[in-house]
TrEMBL record:
One of its GO terms (biological process) is carbohydrate metabolic process. Residues 696-791 form the Glycoside hydrolase family domain. The lineage of its organism: Bacteria, Pseudomonadati, Bacteroidota, Sphingobacteriia, Sphingobacteriales. Residues 1-20 form the signal peptide. This is Glycoside hydrolase family 2.
Length: 796
């Protein structure tokens, strides 16, 4: 067993086509036809899908439905349907394209995907979370003849997950044109054997396609900085399909979450006549890290992993991946102080990892939620025995050059943890990962804190052990699991609905109270949970307690909170009509809950002074008032100008609090440092709603033009501009020109209106719409209507 794991590696963002065009990537997302009928005649090239729906990818067919209790996935699966769907697309190639090699790339299809080209069966893909490719070259037609792709997607076996999966071709599809002799990206591995600000090195290992076997030529490696200046270059000769070369680099800037510096690496393959055979471009960064019994260090400095767990859905978009929506999620987390992400509990889109590389996040990349022992009747366990090794190979080869991957996780709360079958499976998968990528540690998220009962730990091959929950056992872990670095791989499971404030109890409320109860027995009739940090699932605890227990223990390398955002499905503690989770620090619409500011006050230097709750109550009602703050000695609360006393945080409590008899007016808190007021914030009693305010967010979340989203946040306000938290109204989003509404939301976990609907009630004063331009060349208009109020929003 390793007592220490030190890693030097390269950071990878994306593969781009070169200017010389030996390799061309063609966007294949548009022009598809779709149906939810099922007939094997649909695979025929001669079939005409005249009545099918026209769709663009990524596409999640489930998210367009109203939520329903009748769907077999249950509310744990999002209370939405699965089923079987077909996709078809026709395309043409020029006679001049003959001789090129064509590959069709699918970023992800949930679930079972079968592919045909021109009546030829190209096989079945099993894993709904992994990308896959199909070689089209032998079956293509050129000139005036059409090529027809048909894809059958089968997500009919339900339930197959503990959360919402989505259905369909829900990630990007692209057609890649390559020369007959080309590099294989899956076989390309880039590492940095030496990393320092003085001297570093980049090693490139790759393989040429079979067409390149036995050919002689050379590879030019070129590294450039952000100003496009070449800082290292080398020519490597080759005479077989294997290619390897190393660059020596002086004076690089190191990559870190605070400064994610990246460099361009070009790999150009030429034959003996200097003809370019292929060219790839990667984004490279330099860093090193270390796990040991004292925690985690990055680039030689102690570094606490301040992480969250995320699921792959994007709220109102469902599982359909959109890079700007993912960027929005990540930047909201970044502002909170997050520096690490755990992908729960499956591989994410490659483009998500690109964003983590660029924005500066460390990612624990997780492969599986179950092995051979099931958690749902039709989950991955039915395919595990035959496919888990090949799927693990695919994952590691796909993502091993990403900076966002600093650790591989082979499983989450795996049931083989409790019997000796876990030993062999752990050894086998860890060996596979290490062979493909010896530069990163391997871990698993465990629950059993007694070594004698934990057979995954007993395998003795994991570099780092992650433990979920059970903070009361943290201090025994270094003794039970001697010499192995430790992280808190999943914590908290606190429950909240944004904007709801129930009277506080003296202790943390557990909803449900124990494993004997499937649901909470005395919950709220409107299926809400208080936003005070005082309710958790029985296996969890409050956000404050979970963070305090990790914060005080240096031997824990970091924390991954369950979860950063609410997600579809798994709506503990309630049955239907609850249909999405309550765990998030941010709600499903992307609106922060109050506890967001607790983390921001602890994890950043941003000036934080957050007061809760709202100030609309009944006269004389006693209200619990909390304040999250930082960078100060104490805070003082005022009600209508009268001081209610000063309070401060303690070593065991990360907020200030008062009990206040309600009277209408103004509640103000001020932050005091060295006897001076340095910041203040106010909550006012709101009157009747008379107007709406529409904020448009786009520029910060922009990524690539046409797929960019515009996020419209609607606030319901009174005549003084105060948010109205207790008098919600229906909002209609009415497209006028050049735009499509992709989804709407309000963060309420039991809202049964389809998330694809252009109408949404505000919830606690807010609603959000995600819209997309149809053309980037011209402006767009939308009317936002609430009762008699209309606002025309012009988007340039």
């Amino acid at each position: 067993m390793f007592s220490k794991f030190v890693c030097f590696l390269v950071l990878f963002v994306t593969v781009l086509p070169s200017m010389a065009q030996p390799r061309e990537t063609i966007d294949f997302n548009g022009g598809w036809s779709f149906t939810l009928e099922d007939d094997l005649q649909f695979r025929r090239a001669s079939f005409s899908p005249v009545n099918w729906k026209k769709v663009s990818l990524p596409h999640d067919w489930s998210i367009g439905f109203d939520f329903g209790e009748e769907y077999p996935a249950g509310n744990a699966g999002g209370a939405l349907p699965g089923g079987i769907g077909w996709y078809r697309k026709a395309f043409q190639l020029s006679e001049n394209d003959k001789g090129s090699h064509y590959t069709l790339y699918f970023g992800g299809v949930y679930r079972y995907a079968e592919v045909w080209l021109n009546d030829q069966y190209l096989g079945k893909n099993i894993n709904g979370y992994l990308s896959f490719e199909r070689d089209l070259t032998p079956y293509l037609r050129y000139g005036n003849e059409q090529n027809v792709i048909a894809v059958r997607v089968d997500n009919s076996l339900q339930p197959n997950s503990r959360w919402y999966t989505g259905s369909g071709i829900y990630r990007d599809v692209r057609l890649e044109k390559r020369a007959p002799v080309h590099l294989l990206p899956a076989e390309t591995f880039i590492t940095t054997p030496k990393v320092s600000t003085e001297k570093s090195s980049v090693r490139v290992q790759s393989v040429l396609s079979q067409a390149g076997s036995g050919k002689a030529g050379r590879v030019v490696l070129k590294l450039r900085d952000k100003n496009k200046k070449t800082i290292a270059e080398k020519t490597v000769l080759f005479s077989s399909s294997q290619i390897e070369g190393e660059l020596q680099v002086d004076g690089v800037s190191l990559w870190s979450p605070d400064s994610p510096t990246l460099y361009d690496l070009d790999i150009t393959v030429l034959d003996n006549t200097n003809k370019i055979l292929d060219e790839l471009r990667y984004k490279v960064g330099f860093r090193y890290f270390q796990f040991d019994e004292n925690g985690f260090a990055l680039n030689g400095e102690p570094f606490k992993l301040l992480g969250v767990c995320l699921h792959h859905d994007l709220g109102a978009l469902g599982a359909a991946f959109n890079k700007s929506a993912a960027k929005r999620q990540l930047l909201i987390m970044k502002d909170m102080g997050v520096n690490a992400i755990r992908t729960a509990h499956n591989p994410f889109a490659e483009e998500f990892l690109d964003l983590c590389d660029e924005l500066g996040f460390l990612v624990q990349n997780e492969a599986y939620d179950m092995w051979a022992k099931r958690k749902n009747k039709f989950d991955y366990h039915i395919d595990f025995k035959e496919h888990h090794i090949v799927d693990l190979i695919t994952l590691v080869k796909r993502d091993r050059n990403h900076p966002s991957v600093f650790m591989w996780s082979i499983g989450n709360e795996i049931r083989e943890q409790f019997d000796d079958t876990g030993v062999a499976l752990t050894k086998g998968m860890t060996e596979v990962v290490k062979k493909l990528d010896p530069t990163r540690p391997v871990t698993a998220a465990l629950t059993e804190t007694n070594y004698e009962k934990n057979f995954i730990a007993q395998a003795g091959v994991l570099d780092v052990l992650g433990f979920n929950y059970k903070y009361f056992d943290y201090d025994k872990l270094p003794t039970e699991f001697k010499g192995v670095p430790l992280i808190a791989s999943e914590t908290t499971s606190a429950l909240q609905t944004r904007g709801v404030y129930d009277a506080l109890h003296d202790t943390i409320q557990l909803w449900p109270a124990s494993s004997a109860d499937k649901f909470v027995t005395n919950g709220n009739p409107d299926f809400t949970v208080s936003a005070y940090d005082n309710v958790a699932a029985y296996w969890g605890t409050s956000h404050e307690r979970a963070w305090l227990e990790v914060k005080k223990r240096d031997f824990l390398g970091g924390i991954f909170v369950w979860t950063g955002f609410d997600y579809l499905g798994e709506p503990v503690p309630y049955p239907y009509p609850a249909r999405s989770s309550y765990y998030g620090i941010v709600d499903l619409a992307g609106l922060p809950k109050d506890v967001y500011y607790m983390y921001q006050s602890e994890w950043t230097d941003t000036e934080v002074l957050h007061l809760l709750p709202h100030w609309n109550w009944k006269e004389g009602e006693q209200v619990d008032v909390w304040c999250y703050y930082n960078n100060a000695d104490e805070v003082e609360l005022f009600l209508n100008g009268q001081s209610l006393g000063r309070r401060s945080k303690t070593d065991e409590r990360l907020h200030a609090s008062w009990k206040v008899p309600y009277e209408a007016g103004e509640l103000k808190v001020v932050k005091i440092k060295d006897g001076t007021v340095v910041q203040e914030t106010v909550k006012k009693t709101a009157g009747k709603p008379v107007d709406i305010v529409v904020d448009v967010e786009h520029d910060r979340y922009a990524v690539d033009g046409l797929t960019d989203l515009y996020f419209l946040t609607v606030s319901l306000v009174d005549k003084n501009g105060t948010i109205v938290p207790d008098n919600d109204v229906e909002v209609s989003f009415l497209p006028q020109e050049n735009l499509t509404i992709r989804g709407t939301d309000n963060g309420y976990q039991a809202d049964l209106n389809s998330l694809a609907s252009p109408k949404r009630n505000t919830y606690k004063g807010f609603a959000v719409a995600m819209i997309q331009k149809n053309s980037m060349e011209k402006g767009a208009k939308i009317i936002v209507k609430a009762n008699t109020i209309k606002k025309e929003i012009v988007i340039k």
